[in-house]
Amino acid sequence: ISSIARTYASNHSLVDLLISNKHVGMAQCPRVRAALAINSGNVGDPHSAGRRKVIVFQLSSEVRRKTSELQGVEDFYMRPFVDMNSFILPDVVSLIGMNFGKNELYRAFG
Fold it and tell me: What global pTM score does this model have?
């Protein structure tokens, strides 16, 4: 599972992906399509693309749980904030609340 820092620093310029027929399954991957859509909507603004990807792929406990299960990593989705710098933690908490509501805050820190 990618860290928040790696998600933020990921490639934000890729907006289209052509895959041969034998790999068409990957082209159907909703996460790949979502990442490409975020990049397309933030061309020339890597900060906004990175921030949006962190919100979509890292701050939702449901997305983290599903990703953990797909990769066979147990309980990782429950602890994304353990090693987080305390200086940025309030901003992350605010992003979770603004984008997902207070129920997600309870799941994230429960």
Answer: 0.72
